[in-house]
Amino acid sequence: MKNRQIVLAHRPHGWVQESDFRLVESEAPEPQEGEALVRNRYLSLDPYMRMRMSDAPSYAPSVGVGEVMVGGTIGEVVASRSPLLAAGDTVTGPLGWQLYGVAPATRLRRIENPVAPLSAYLGVLGMPGITAWVGLELIGPGSPGQTLVVSAASGAVGSVAGQIGRIRGCSSIGIAGGAQKCRQVEKELGFDACVDYREPDLSGRLRAAAAKGIDVYFENVGGSILDAVLELLNPFARIALCGQVSQYNLTEPYGVRNLRSLLVNRVLLRGYIVSDHMDLWPRATAELTGWVREGTLRYHETVAHGLPSAPKAFIAMLRGDKLGKQVVELDDAG
After folding, report:
1. SS3 of 317, please?
2. How far apart, in whole angstroms, are the C-alpha atoms of residue 63 and residue 327?
3. What total number of domains does the chain contain?
4. Rounded-to-10 torsion of CA 292, 293, 296, 301
5. I need a labelling partner for 246 at 20 to 30 A (CA). Which of 114, 223, 306, 320 fits?
6. Do residues 53 and 16 make contact, with C-beta atoms less than 8 angstroms apart?
7. How far apart are the first and last CA of the chain?
């Protein structure tokens, strides 16, 4: 069987370019003892991939030049040499930007009795949704009457974090880029308010929306948005530091100015990586699945078609030119 893969052609400096990727063809790999071969049907595109393209030290190894880009997928088992999986099983796992991938069966999660379309298991019911749940669990999701602010509120992680706060009785305020995204955050996802960071006077408009101050902040963006939030933190506020997407493509990082607020307000700021907390995944999955089944937790997807579309879709995601979770449907032509 012929495989198609997208590999890292060049390490980007500054903004990612489509020329940093290359589409190649090869033979589909053969599974070894304990492994399974999977035909991927959907590919997840996520901001963390930008850090994996860099050779700077980080929490996970860099993708080597010429290596397949990392990423989560969902697909069907074609062949298995493990008693844990059988041909025809639907699984999700870290198989990368390619049509066919091999992995140990222990690294693949079987999807049984799905409550949503399969692509949702790369978003609201997958790593992004679990990331939102875990971040709030680690710092305390807030209690009824408290104010939760979420940056990148229309994205795959932020949209779930804000809704978890709403479900648990918080006032959920989103920050997003553009009127269309803010309408979606308020009308479709049920946030109490959304502030468009592209409009003037972000600090003033955020202050008006969060009139009682901010008790919990779910941080996805960094930069000037983080600075605006720091001005409004209540004493003993908590921050879940999930991402800094505004900084990933910069050659010079933004210098945050309002760090004094962390001291005077005795703020808890906790950075975390969701893969460090695998013990929490079963609880997160169970609760997220229940909310989706009930219709309490809503989600939106942006779908690109065909493996060759992945680089362009990835860059658009980093620029914020999409709603919700970005996935690539891998049709028969790739």
Report:
1. helix
2. 20
3. 2
4. 30
5. 306
6. yes
7. 13
Residue found by looking up tokens 């409004």 in the block? 232
- Name the burial class of residue 251, with classes exposed (0-12), middle (13-18) and buried (19+) by CB atoms within 10 angstroms of its CB: exposed
Helix (H, G, I), strand (E, B) or coil at 290: helix
Q: Specify the amino acid at residue 212.
A: K
SS3 140: coil
Of 229, 259, 275, the last residue of a domain is: 275
SS3 category, 11: coil
Count how many residues are written for the chain: 334
> The tokens of 278 are what?
């695998």
Work out the average pLDDT over 319-327: 91
User: How far is residue 189's CA from residue 300's CA, in Å, rounded to a whole number?
Assistant: 9
Please give the pLDDT value at position 334.
63
Which secondary structure element, helix H or strand E, spans residue 74, and what is its range? strand 73-80
Record the tokens describing residue 230, joined without a space: 């720091």
CATH number, position 76: 3.90.180.10
pLDDT tens figures, 125-159: 999 999 999 999 999 878 899 999 999 999 999 99
77 and 155 in a single domain? The answer is no
Host domain of residue 112: 2-122+300-329
